[in-house]
Structures are given as C-alpha cells and as structure tokens.
Amino acid sequence: MILRRVLALPSWHGQVRVLAGEAGVDGPLQTVRPALDASGTPGEAELVVLVRPLDADWRVDTLLRRCADAGAAGVLLPGPEPLTASRLLADRLSVPLLTSTADPLELLVDARMLLAAPDLDRATAVLATHRAVGERLLPPEEVVTVLRRLTRVPVAVLDDRGGLLAGELTGAARVRVSEPVPQRVDLDDGGVLLAHPAVLPRPSVWLAAELGERDAPRADVVAATLAVAAGAVQRWLLANRLELERDARSRSALLGDLLRPESEPGADLRRRAADAGWRLGGWHVGLRIGVPAEVDTVARTQEVIRALRAESVDAVAVEHGEGWTGWVTFDQEPTAQRVRTLSARLRAVHRSLRRTLDADLGVGRPHPHPDGLAATVAEATDAARLAATRQETGHFLHVDQLGMAQLLLEWTRTDTFDPAARALLAPLNSAPGDLIRTLAVYLDAESSLAETATVLGVHRNTVAARVARIEQLLDIDLSRPDERLALHLAARAVILARP
Predict the structure, then answer these.
(1) pTM of the full predicted structure?
(2) Where is the CdaR GGDEF-like domain (predicted)?
(3) CATH code of the domain containing 29
C-alpha cells in the first residue's frame, strides 16, 4: 500500500495536511507506529505518528533524517506546525511531513485498520451507502446528496448524452455514454472520473463521481458505492417511468376524444380537459412534431416542453403516435403579426430539438372553439407530413406558407391517385440517379437549377442533365403548367409513400 491511500481515508481527509515532502506520498507503506518523541529508529516503509508535539524543531529535523536513512514512509506531527526550515528539509529528503489537529491515536487506529484489512474500507462504504439509500424511492437529487456526504467528492447524475440531471461535475463530458459499462477515466490533473450506468435496459442515466488527485486512491471504494446507489436511481427511474406512461396514456386518450368529429364536447369531456389544464375556448393554433418510430416519446416529452418554454411558447404537448401533438391557445383571434411571431418561435423550438432529434414540425392556422382545435391540429399534421419531405424548408412548415399545397395534399389522398401517380412516374424508376426526388425538388424550387442543386448537393449541370432526362423518359414538357402540376402531385405522392 502507499501513503496516499491512507491520506484518502474519510477520517484523514480534511484532517491531515501534507506540509512538505509531497514527492514521497506515493512511496510504500507497511506499518504505522506511535512515538512519544524523536528517539528510536524508524522502520522501512513505516509511518511514525507522534502522539504529542515535539518541544524543538531540531528534533523534527533529526527525526526526518532518521526516516530518510531508514526509508520510512513519513512523519505525522500533532499540534503546531514546524518552522520553514524543517519543511525545506522534508522536501529535500522527499520524506512526507504531515500535520493534524485531530487525535493522533484515532488516526493511527484507522490507518492500522486499513493496513490490516484493506477491503474493510470498501465494505464499510458499501454498507453505509446501502443503509442510506435503502429500499426507499429517492429522486436523483437526494441520491447525489447522500453520495456526496459519504464519499466527500463531487457526484452527479447524467443523462444518455452526458448532460447533467443533478449535482455538479466538471468532467461530465468525458463519460462515454455510448458504452453501457462501469467506466474509469484518468483526468489530466491526476484525478479520476468514475461512472456507473443505471440500465433500464439501456443506459439512459449514469451516476458519476469525480475524484481529485488526493482522493484517487479510493477510486475502488467510490466505484463500489456508485454501483449500490445506481440501484436506487434505477428504482426511482422505473417508478417514475410507470407514472409517466400512465399520464401519457391518459393525455393521449383525452386528446383522441377531443379530436373526434363531434359537434360539441360533452360535460364529462370538458371536465377532463379542465382537469388536465387544457383550454377549449378561445382561438387555437395547432402544432405537430413528428419523429422516427424508434424515438421514446414518453421519455423525451420533458425535453420538448423545455424547448417550448425556452422560446416562451405556452403550448400543450401530448405524446401522440410517432411524435407529439399540441397547440397554443389565444383569448382572442390572433393578428397576423402574432401568428408570424409564434411561427418564428416554433421554428426556433424546432432547431433546438433537431440537435438531438430527427424531428419534423408542422403548424396549423388559427381556429376558434373546440371544433377549431381539431381543425388546426389536422392542418398541423398535414404540414408535418409535408415537412418530412422538404429538406429545403428545414423540415418545418406552416400551413399559411403552404397555400395551394395544403389543398393538393388532400387530393392525393384518394384511393385512385397513388396507383396513377406510380404508373405515371414508372419510367423514372430504372434510370440512374433519384429522378423522382430530383423532379420534386426542381418543381418545389420553381424550376431553379441552382436552388435544386443546393438542396440535392450536386452540381447544377447534373440537375440540368437529369431534368432533360426526365422530359425525355416521360415525353413531357415541364414548361407547360398543367403537366407541371400533375407531375408535382405525382412526385409528392410517390415520395410520401416511400418507407
């Protein structure tokens, strides 16, 4: 064992200071011996603990020289600190000179216990952690508080992207959250970063601790306490998940009832909406956030709510299918300027969400009363469907910006349109290059070769060659409005039908 490991003991931490001879704290330590004075010869790898202060600094110097000659581990002095000359001597001899105002015999006993039973420290810490967290449901904030008190090091709870959920940690970004195993990361300052996953079945949350250079020798002890406390975090997450899913099912069912094509919601439905804090009166502007099917919408609802609040958007957001359905309610019919301001804020929300989510966002127009809520949500859903195929708009669309495209989308939903669209564009399927997507983007860009090239990430000459090839294969003239409209609708329908 090394002296630094003893210095990391909880009873020594903060009670014992290294005055000088720091270079020797990583030297071997085999025994700890009490001494009444500077007489006697220290043993090799032995820490001399004086039980009372020495009456002269020259005696400290004498003891330091004897320790250096014998290869001792160091000297612990109680009471007042020695003169600067003794410290300089300890540095020159590389003999650790320690001082403490605590009871030296208690420190000695704890050090001897560690030397005699090295695993006892870890077992004691594990037992203390188990007693502290027990079988109770503790939120992450309380778990962090318990661990900080027991380990005396910074502790934090991290999410599945390394962000802080509770506590403070300067090296949180060093945790490799993609690897669901306990981790140890050596820091540049000599410290250690420890992380233990709370698996649910995937590591959605991590419990991490940051040990400084002096605490690093106790990394095995702290790692064991993290493993115990991770179980407490997991229990809380499971209980919280059950509650979130129950609430999500309730909200989703209520939303489904509100969106049913009925003339007027009944008293029971209005009461349920009021209990949920949803306003049915006033003017509503719907929004729809679509995400891939694999996204856990229940777990990420709070992320959506935080993004809305960050842009001062007071909106309802409900887990609904593959994404979230929501709306903003105004007391009176909003002016065009207020709608544009809301749209700009929702675009900022969308940009924020797309940092971590492959999300499409659509916004409806203002509609009044409960039946208007269903109408604006339907418009927002249509806009989100269109946004999913429009990279050029940043996958964000507001119905007011769509104009005729909203009406055309309704036409493409007939049972006969999809087969006709596929048959019309069939000659393009076997040609090299994605000619159908090129056609759609080209018509979206109002026949601009430069803009089409930017969206597709190709040279404008490539776009020109593809457009010429499309006209040749389909035997059409893209300068004719009627043919452009038919092809635009067909291309949109085929692209939307793709997986």
Answers:
(1) 0.55
(2) 265-386
(3) 3.40.1390.20
